[in-house]
Amino acid sequence: MPAPVYSTDVDVAGVSATRNLLRQMEPDLLKRLDRRLNVVANRVKSVAQAEFERTGATGTAYRVRTRTRRGSFVKSIATAAGSVPRGQKWSSEPGVLASVFELANAVRDARPENVRRTQSLIDTLNAKYYSPGRFLWTAWDAEGDRAQADVEDAVREAELEYTRRMEAVR
User: How many domains does one find in the chain?
Assistant: First the structure.
């Protein structure tokens, strides 16, 4: 059974249009923009990973994903893929553990028969790890404003460089 994937996304208005233009006209600027966006996403991922490691668990629990759709470009920081092998009830794979921590901050949308078990899981995790909660939210609280500003700066710089190049051609 695959573990649920929890993620936080950085989606900045206008990035898709800029990327499409750069892809067609100035691919080197697109590569530069992508490198800058990866730096921002990896910084947020590192904060979430550090919070995860605070629990004593080891291994890569988070990854950066790029999703490109028509009219949309999103960088996601998500729990790494993992699964519980058939016939087992538990896995210590980092992605599975991180998914548990991302989920285990509140009883929400649980079926009535699962509320007691879910609350027991949360209580057990809180007793062992001191209310770890959602590491991605913590990472975003710590880095979100800076990340958003850095993405906007990267896009603005790419657009300015593109404009400079076009004006130099005239």
Answer: 1
